[in-house]
Amino acid sequence: MTSEPYEYRDADSTFVGYLARPAAGGNGAGILVLHEAPGLGAHALLRARMLAELGYVALAADLYGNGVVAADFEGALSLMRGLQADPILHRRRVRHALDTLAALPGVIPHSLAAIGYCSGGTSALELARSGAPVAGAVSFHGILHTPIEASPGVIESRILVCTGSADPLVPQAQVQAFENEMTRAKADWQVIVYGGAPHGFTDRNASSVGKPGFGHDERADRRSWLAMQSFLTETLPSK
After folding, report:
1. For 47-106, what is the HEC assignment?
2. What pLDDT is recorded for position 237?
3. According to the model, what pLDDT value does residue 239 have?
4. Where are the extended beta strands (E) located within the chain?
5. What is the DSSP letter of 131?
6. Domain assignments of the chain as residue spans, ordered by start
């Protein structure tokens, strides 16, 4: 496995992502990794490397531009809210990162998926809602509501949501509303709820935020990663 920072551009901005590739061969599929609220940090980089070890080309996107990472919780909220306040810009940033991944050597353009953590999980779902040509979208403890609900027949992606029953940011009413939206949109979706798991359950450093209901859950972390692997195997065509 090899990995390195990867710079890409659109008409207005420069983005500093992170590219991880399998050591040899690989299965030809590309996975877009979408970061948490603070920006592209250690957890998203780790997941990109883990995906490369599984044979995928993984591009961890930079959704804020110029590799900006917040210094604290309030800064992270400001960055996240600033991007999500403009849902069209949000979707365009994620789609540009997907198109960058699709154009990489060794990636089969029709064998793409996106996974995201916390606000990145929201970003993965927004990509799917937009009708982007992505085969699969996986949200780990992401917020499930949206300012622009999916229209029937628009979503091309299969969707997997992994959420925790003890996540204060994703109450049961929000899960039910998401399920209703996906049903109306006629999407291929599934939701797995991990009992007792808090917000950020995949991140070993989630408790450092110091907020109630945030933390790591080893069982939910392990089980959701296995669920994702099964989902990707079923969803993505390979060489």
Report:
1. HHHHHHHCCCEEEECCCCCCCCCCCCHHHHHHHHHHHHCCHHHHHHHHHHHHHHHHCCCC
2. 77
3. 59
4. 2-9, 14-21, 30-34, 57-60, 112-117, 136-140, 158-164, 188-194
5. T
6. 2-235
Contact 229, 56 (CB under 8 A): no
Contact indicator for 63, 123 with CB cutoff of 8 Å: yes
- What's 23's DSSP letter? S
Task: Give the closest residue to 127 by CA, choosing from 141, 117, 138.
Answer: 138
pLDDT, tens only, 136-179? 999 999 999 999 999 999 999 999 999 999 999 999 999 999 99
CA distances from 42 to 9, 49, 196, 206, 230 (A): 22, 11, 25, 12, 24
Quick check: 108 pLDDT over 70? Answer: yes
Burial class (CB in 10 A: 0-12, 13-18, 19+), 32: buried
How far is C-alpha 99 from the chain's CA centre? 15
Helix (H) or strand (E) segment spanning residue 218: helix 218-235
> Which pair of structure tokens corresponds to residue 208?
């450092």
CB 50 within 8 A of CB 140: no
At 224, the amino acid letter reads S
Cβ burial 135-148 (10 Å sphere, 16+ → b, else e): bbbbbbbbbbebee
Domain covering 2-235: architecture: 3-Layer(aba) Sandwich (3.40)
pTM value is: 0.97
